C-alpha cells in the first residue's frame, strides 16, 4: 500500500523490509538505509506505547539519546488526559536534537521526522490513508517531500510461455532502459502478466507496441 502511494508522487521504492519489534533490529535497518536512500518511511508500529520501539531504534541509528519532548507530551496530554505528564512519561521520549514534529490539523498527534526518516504510526489501511493524505498536504505547503511526476503503467496478459517471451523482453529492457519491464503469474496455471512502468506514457506505449508486434495478433491482451 505504501509503495503505491510513493509511486503516485513519483518516488521509486528501493527496498521493503520487515523488522522484529526490538530496538536493535529497527536501528540496524535505519542505519543501513538512511545514508543510501533519499527518504526512509517506518510504519506498522503501534504508536507511542511502551511496546513500540520504533523511535528508540531511530535514535540509536543516529547515535542520539531519547529525551522528553515537551511539545509532543502536550499533544499526548490533550489526547489522553493528565495521566500523560512528568519526566517519567516514556511515551513522550523522542530522539534528542533531531526530531521535527509534523503538525496537521487532522492529526491528533504530529508525525515524527528525524532527518530523512519519517515515522508513521499507522497500523492499518485506513490510518495509513489518513496519515499519508496529511503528509502530502504538508509536503505541498512546506516541501518536506518532493512531489514528482507519478509513475504510470500498462499490463498485458498472454498465454505464451516464459521461454517464448524471455528473449524479446530482454531486448526491450536494453532498448527502453528508462522503463521497468517485468513479468509474473498470479497462479501456476494462470496467464503470464507483462508490466511496463515508467513516467513517460509514450515510452510505455512504444515498448508495449514493440513487444506485441513481435508475435501474432492477439497474443497479448491489455489489462485495464
From TrEMBL:
Gene3D superfamilies: MoaB/Mog-like domain
Pfam families for this protein: MoCF_biosynth
Coiled coil: none
Residues spanning the signal sequence: none
Domain MoaB/Mog: from-to ranges: 1-82
Name used for this protein in its record: MoaB/Mog domain-containing protein
Organism name: Anisodus acutangulus
Phylogenetic classification of the source organism: Eukaryota, Viridiplantae, Streptophyta, Embryophyta, Tracheophyta
Amino acid at each position: 500500500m505504501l509503495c503505491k502511494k510513493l509511486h503516485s508522487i513519483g518516488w521509486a521504492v528501493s527496498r521493503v523490509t520487515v523488522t522484529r519489534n526490538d530496538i536493535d533490529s529497527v536501528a540496524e535497518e535505519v542505519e543501513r538505509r538512511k545514508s543510501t536512500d533519499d527518504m526512509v518511511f517506518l510504519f506498522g508500529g503501534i504508536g507511542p506505547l511502551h511496546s513500540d520501539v520504533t523511535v528508540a531504534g531511530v535514535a540509536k541509528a543516529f547515535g542520539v539519546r531519547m529525551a522528553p519532548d515537551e511539545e509532543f507530551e502536550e499533544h499526548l496530554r490533550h489526547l489522553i488526559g493528565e495521566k500523560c505528564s512528568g519526566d517519567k512519561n516514556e511515551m513522550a521520549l523522542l530522539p534528542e536534537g533531531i526530531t521535527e514534529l509534523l503538525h496537521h490539523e487532522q492529526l491528533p498527534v504530529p508525525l515524527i521526522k528525524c532527518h530523512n526518516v519519517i515515522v508513521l504510526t499507522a497500523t492499518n489501511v485506513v490510518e495509513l490513508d489518513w496519515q499519508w493524505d496529511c503528509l502530502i498536504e504538508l509536503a505541498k505547503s512546506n516541501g518536506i517531500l518532493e512531489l514528482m511526476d507519478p509513475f504510470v503503467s500498462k499490463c498485458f496478459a498472454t498465454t505464451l510461455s516464459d521461454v517464448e517471451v524471455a528473449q524479446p523482453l530482454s531486448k526491450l529492457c536494453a532498448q527502453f532502459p528508462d522503463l521497468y519491464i517485468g513479468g509474473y503469474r498470479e497462479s501456476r496455471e494462470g496467464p503470464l502478466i507483462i508490466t511496463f512502468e515508467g513516467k513517460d506514457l509514450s515510452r510505455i506505449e512504444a515498448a508495449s507496441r514493440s513487444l506485441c508486434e513481435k508475435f501474432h495478433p492477439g497474443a497479448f491482451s491489455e489489462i485495464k
